[in-house]
């Protein structure tokens, strides 16, 4: 049973309205965000229209602000934006969806001025605008505005998408646009693509960039931005209309040979029941040396081969994908389709291939993911001179996974990280290296025979001889 002093709604209600009001005044003093929430709540208590006025005032204030927002004060902005977005959805929309839709468009218009003065390296702020964009779609479905007017609004928005705030807008708005609105939007986008960006007289050209190709002028940049926006819009419209050929038409023949683009085209053709054409696009893709083939291209090719009933070819391709990438998902799919007992032989062949794979880290990760810890240990012992101690993000988890059953292999991994840290004098890693050395001492008790490798005492003696003057490190090992 909760104490009467526990902070919950029931206990606070017992204080009474007058006392709660006094506490809220005290708590909000000096707290601008809390004051705004309280004012918004008071406005909402009067009417949705008053709440809408309060939201409009705040959106205007945010748009006019000019101070730069760093990661240190970003939290206040995030709280403010999310408060306004939620108020539109939760307070205005139930009573007046038309007003809520208009306010949400105003909210989205904040994106450009906000990002012009904001450090959003964490992606938190853009996440709020992406949610607001999704809210737009839900509100538009309720309101059902004129599809022609909505098409114009959508196209205007897409021309102000410099920070990706409107990414996916056409798909989001497709239900509200309907067939008529999508057709109108397509026609508008095509008209926009055909209309040139005005070129000022040469004495008014404004340089905005310089590069190997010479100076870039503002009107040229705007022309490129318009071309890109129109092409992206027409692709999204084609997707919304289920028009595969319209989607393909947005790429010139050369671009269609880019593996990632070929995969996108093939995916749509396959969904439309045109597997033969999908395979044609995939096979015409230019894969270069074939070592860095996009996963999307590989996956859709497998789906396409299966759809065409070419199971044996698909199996051969799965094995080829595994050999090139050491992806355990391809190997599992390959083994799953083999008869009993054949899978055992194939798995052994896969393990041998991984042991000899050129990249030690890829091989190690494969064995850990499978999992095959015995193989991982054998790999590290056999190829210990290839262990790069800089890759702690792979090696630290590997040492932890191997420490219980394979202490020698775990020790070799820890030593590689210690050696790299001290040899390169990476002082920021000294604390971790000291912890690794302590782990090595603990693991040494479980290693009956170091074989060709140094014992722990011999290793420590060598470290002191080679790096004895790195007092920052040694002081941590004594702690």
For this entry, give a set of tags.
479 residues; two-stranded antiparallel sheet; 69% helix; DUF6880
Q: How does this model look, in words?
A:
The chain is 69% helix and 2% strand. It has helices at residues 9-13, 17-28, 32-46, 48-64, 74-92, 97-108, 111-115, 124-143, 147-158, 169-194, 218-241, 244-249, 259-271, 275-284, 295-307, 311-325, 328-336, 342-355, 360-369, 373-382, 392-402, 407-423, 430-444, 456-467, 471-477; strands at 207-211, 214-217. It has a two-stranded antiparallel ribbon.
Low-confidence stretches: none
Q: Give average pLDDT, whole number.
A: 92
Strand order, largest beta sheet: 1-2
Order of helices and strands: HHHHHHHHHHEEHHHHHHHHHHHHHHH
How many whole angstroms does the radius of gyration measure?
31 Å
Number of helices: 25
Provide the helix percentage.
55-70%
Number of strands: 2
Structural class: mainly alpha
Indicate the proportion of strand residues. Answer: under 5%
Report the end-to-end length measured between terminal Cα atoms. 45 Å
Shape: globular
The main β sheet shows up as: 2 strands, antiparallel
């Amino acid at each position: 049973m909760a104490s009467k002093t526990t902070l919950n709604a029931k206990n606070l209600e017992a204080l009474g309205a007058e006392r709660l009001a006094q506490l809220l005044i005290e708590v909000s003093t000096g707290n601008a965000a809390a004051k705004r929430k309280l004012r918004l709540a008071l406005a909402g208590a009067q009417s949705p229209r008053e709440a809408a006025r309060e939201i409009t005032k705040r959106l205007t204030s945010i748009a006019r602000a000019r101070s730069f927002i760093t990661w240190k004060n970003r939290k206040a902005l995030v709280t403010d934006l999310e408060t306004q977005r939620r108020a539109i959805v939760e307070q205005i929309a139930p009573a007046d969806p038309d007003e809520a839709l208009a306010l949400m468009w105003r909210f989205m218009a904040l994106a450009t001025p906000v990002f012009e003065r904001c450090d959003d390296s964490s992606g938190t702020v853009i996440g709020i605008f992406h949610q607001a964009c999704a809210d737009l779609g839900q509100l538009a479905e309720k309101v059902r505005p004129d599809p022609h007017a909505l098409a114009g609004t959508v196209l205007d928005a897409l021309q102000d998408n410099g920070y990706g705030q409107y990414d996916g807008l056409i798909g989001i708005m497709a239900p509200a646009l309907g067939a008529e609105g999508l057709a109108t939007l397509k026609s508008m986008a095509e008209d926009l693509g055909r209309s040139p960006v005005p070129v000022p007289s040469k004495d008014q050209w404004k340089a905005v960039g310089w590069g190997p190709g010479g100076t870039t002028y503002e009107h040229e940049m705007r022309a490129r931005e318009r071309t890109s926006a129109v092409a992206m819009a027409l692709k999204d419209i084609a997707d919304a209309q289920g028009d595969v050929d319209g989607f393909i038409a947005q790429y010139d023949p050369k671009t269609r040979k880019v593996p990632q683009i070929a995969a996108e085209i093939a995916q749509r053709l396959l969904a439309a029941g045109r597997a033969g054409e999908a395979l044609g696009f995939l096979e015409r893709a230019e894969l270069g040396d074939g070592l860095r083939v996009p996963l999307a291209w590989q996956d859709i090719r497998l789906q396409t081969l299966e759809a065409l009933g070419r199971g044996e070819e698909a199996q051969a391709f799965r094995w080829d994908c595994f050999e090139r990438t050491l992806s355990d998902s391809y190997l599992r799919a390959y083994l799953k389709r083999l008869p009993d007992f054949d899978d055992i032989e194939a798995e052994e062949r896969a393990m041998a291939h991984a042991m000899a794979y050129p990249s030690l880290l890829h091989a190690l990760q494969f064995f850990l993911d499978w999992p095959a810890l015995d193989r991982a240990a054998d790999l590290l012992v056999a190829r210990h001179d290839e262990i790069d101690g800089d890759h702690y993000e792979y090696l630290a988890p590997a040492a932890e996974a191997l420490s219980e059953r394979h202490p020698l292999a775990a020790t070799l991994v820890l030593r590689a990280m210690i050696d790299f840290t001290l040899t390169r004098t990476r002082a920021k890693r000294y604390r971790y290296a000291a912890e690794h050395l302590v782990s090595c001492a603990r693991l040494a008790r479980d290693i009956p025979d170091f074989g060709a490798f140094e014992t722990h005492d011999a290793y420590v003696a060598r470290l002191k001889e080679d790096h004895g003057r790195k007092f920052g490190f040694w002081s941590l090992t004594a702690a």
